[in-house]
Prior knowledge:
CATH architecture: Beta Barrel
Structural class: mainly beta
CATH topology: Maltoporin, Chain A
Helix content: under 10%
Number of helices: 3
Largest sheet: 22 strands, antiparallel, barrel
CATH superfamily: TonB-dependent receptor, beta-barrel domain
Number of strands: 40
Amino acid sequence: MTTPPLGLRSLLPPFALRHIALGLLGLSGFALAHAQAGTSAPDAQPGATLPAVRVRSTSEAETANGPVQGYVAQRSATATKSDTPINEVAQAISVIPRDQIVDQGVSAVQDALRYSAGVTTGIYGARNTTEYFVIRGSKATVLLNGLRQGQTWFAEPLDELYGYERVEVLRGPSSIVAGQSGPGGLVNLVSKRPQATAHREVNVELGNEQRKQVSADFTGAIDETGTLLYRMVGLGLDTGTQVDDADYQRVFLAPSLTWKPRAGTKLTVYGEYQRDNYGNNDAFLPTVGTLTPGPHGTIPINRFISEPGWDGNTGTRSRLGYEFEQDLGGGWTLRNDLRHDDSKRELKSMYSAWWLGFLDGTGTPDPVNGRYLGRAWAIDEGRTLTTAGDLLLEGKFQTGPVAHTLVTGVDLLRYRRTDSYIEGDAGLIDVYTPTYGTFQPPATLDEAAASHSQPKVQQLGFLVLDRIRVGRWALTAGLRYDDAKTESAGTTQKVDAWTKNLGAVYLADGGWSPYASYSESFEAQGADLTGRVFEPKRGQQVEAGVKWSPERQNLRATAAVFHLQEKNRLKGDPANPLNQIESAPITTKGLELEAAANLGAWDFTAAYTRLSAKDDETDTHVAFVPENAASAWVLHKFDPYGVRGLKAGLGVRYQGKTSDGTDTVWVPSVTLADAMVSYDTGDWRVGLNVSNIADKSYVASCDSSGYCWYGEKRKVVATATYRF
């Protein structure tokens, strides 16, 4: 068999097409020498004892980046760069708090999103090399604490969910806060930060696939006055996966320290270290043999395509940053955030030559009796450096009867990647009864033979965003200018763009908040194989809806309709499978319904999405996006029956059929169920979570190139938590 015509790299957008933004933040330091020795009163008494169950003190009002009690968040900063009541935001927002994450027993960001409206997750099934989720028909942009993250690559560490206090989804174009970003929306990960109220927990998890995990989370005040607060989050994981010989290990540490020398001054410094080691469970299996039977039936879900003992991926990430806030008086606040990430990766793996179909033992196509697939090996090594930051000035003031919250400032992103890649023919594998060791791939990367790339992107953005309150109206008007430059494969692309955001919310009686908004996005896309620079991807959306959050009830519901047009999305070039071209406009329109509540002994979330995402020219559906999706999660507390601390929950997730992007292959719909039970004594909590209770075998998605991914099988995890 000859070297495959398509490689692992060709399955992903080339570096020249990657929408990664750059900006070197050189922000001056802020003098803290004037901070007096006297300090403000602590947020909570240092001697306070832990309550019987984890609750937030009534003296600690919810903030946009702090803990949420239950499933219903009231505030967010994701859409406005400032602490804002959610019912005053003229866009649909979902917040998945820590309590919901714990109850549902999820351990990955994409799994935390699976009960949210407008979001498609699990597209690549149980794939462990990267996470991919879609919002309103487009790949989501991911922020960390409001700042852009760089593009992730194979073998780079995936975000550790245990390190986050909440996960937020802002649907629709959001360049006003994120700069270069996809038109469907963004996900903002909000890190755990030091708290004044002491909390210490240790967790032990055991599960199927030989899952073993230990995690710990400590926070509280260091001194009696509450001037210094700390937090230490750590995790160690060792588990198998549903694919043979594709084990996964992780070490994660995230310390942080907050200093509040006086009222109105706060500095938080944080770090993070993560190391992932795992075997690749992503085989790129063909449509025939997964979605439809092969010559000898379907390929087993646990099939390992690579070579045991050789296959292995290592990703490490070190992160250091700070968040500074200074009250300037007179309603003005200065904020400065800065973060630097350093990621390294080493990947050695194989994938199937799915384009050749089933073969006989000599490598000849045999769709009737073939048992073999071709394989290709790949080695990839590289490093990614990302620096992101912002400098914002927020002012609260009145102009007559009109109240303003004005945010203005600059944010920057600098992204640099070095990459060395090589691949080759790895011979055949019998996918029904494999024999390993018949081919010995190279042990190390040959630098002389490898291809090398060093993409760089710089982005500088200036924004002005005014939140206006006049009577019952909450208005938003934002304008942003971005200057971005991308260098890749000898091509430099310079893009400057203006983006706008307009919104209006009417705060009616009974907690009703009807709203309407207009928003825009842009994203640079690099160049094609000839060096021709692609037009930037642009998004424009009109959205209208209503939010309901009645007073004295812990309930929030949102109904939204939207019309989103995306221009210049890249697609495969029919004349050259290694190239890409701009597509005709993509029109996405739909209806989203979502609710979350904590009502007495009942907690629940529910969502429904009706969505049409099509190419205006071909009328074909966007890949991976179902027209209908629905979910519901209900949890009941048995305290009223005299069994204090006992809870049980049940969830159902439905995803409609999805297209491969050409409408020639359709993946059937699937309905999955999840369940949990837990018992909490205050000091101790024990729980059991099961996802995909029926252990359904299903195909999660298929791509127009002809390969598919199996969905995640049943996962069972038992957890014991001790708080002290």
